[in-house]
Structures are given as structure tokens and as C-alpha cells.
Design brief:
CATH class of chain A: Alpha Beta
Strand order of the largest sheet of chain A: 1-2-4-3
CATH superfamily of chain A: Alba-like domain
Number of helices of chain A: 2
Shape of chain A: elongated
Structural class of chain A: alpha+beta
Oligomer: homodimer
CATH architecture of chain A: 2-Layer Sandwich
Largest sheet of chain A: 4 strands, mixed
Amino acid sequence: MELLKVSSKSNPGMVAGAVAGIIRTSGSAEIQAIGAGAVNQAVKALAIAVSYLEGDGIAISFVPSFADIDVGDDQQLTAISFKVESRKI
Amino acid sequence: MELLKVSSKSNPGMVAGAVAGIIRTSGSAEIQAIGAGAVNQAVKALAIAVSYLEGDGIAISFVPSFADIDVGDDQQLTAISFKVESRKI
């Protein structure tokens, strides 16, 4: 599954375009975000991707989960992972 | 559909419990959040609700959208609305 990393500075419209492209070709994707600002941008991107894909007859929904990310020096951060599911409408 | 309003100070575990309860009885729910902190708490709550409901054989996913909220004095804020969908697993 293709993994997109989103930060608080990511452009939601661009992330939405990337998500839509991955979903059109493979049907599933995963987005990872660390911190409130990044999670907010990811959710905005997902809301935009919903409307991008509606025009292609594809409905998407998301399952969030917590993911421990290794950031070196034996340190870990907790990220939010959004698994994107799709179905024809 | 039952509407839960989440703020940046909401406790994700408590919101998750409320979401799980609504999903068990009605099968669908809606969460509304304004601002990055509130969106982050809502997503954490949904991630926790996923594991609460797995034990009941229920899978949930959400669809985010933008919603204009009237806050009086002819002012509007943009909220994120999370529609929660469920299915038996």
C-alpha cells in the first residue's frame, strides 16, 4: 500500500490530488501524520479527495489508527495512520 | 443522525465511548470539529472507537467533509464533519 507522509505545512489540495491518483490506480492508500497540525491537513486533504473521486464514481472512507514511528536515537513518536478504502458508486 | 461536537479539550477516550455507543444502537454517527486541535482529538477518538467496536464485530470508517457553521453576528466558521459508517465483520 502506498504511504503518503503529511506535515502541518502540506498543501491539502496537492495531497488530495496525490491520494486521488493513488486510489484511481491501486484502490487503496495510507496517509501518515504526526501532530495536530499535520492531522488537520491530512483530514482536509481527505475531505477534498472525497469530492475529487466522486466525479470518477469512487467513494472513499478512512480508518484511523495509532502508529509508533521510529525517529532514531531510540526515540518513538505516535503518528496517526489513515487507511483509505474505496468502492465503486 | 446523532451529532457529537468535539473541541480541542475533549477527552478522546470519552468521545470514543460515546461514538461506540451511538454506533451500536443506530449504526451511524456524525462528529463535528472546528480547528486543528479539535480535529486532532476527533481523529484520536475515532481511532480508539475502531478498537472498542472491533470486539463487537463492527468495523467503522469515516468520511470527512467541510461544513459551514453559523456562529451568530452573520459570522461563519468552517468545521470538519466526520460521518461515521459501520458494517458487520
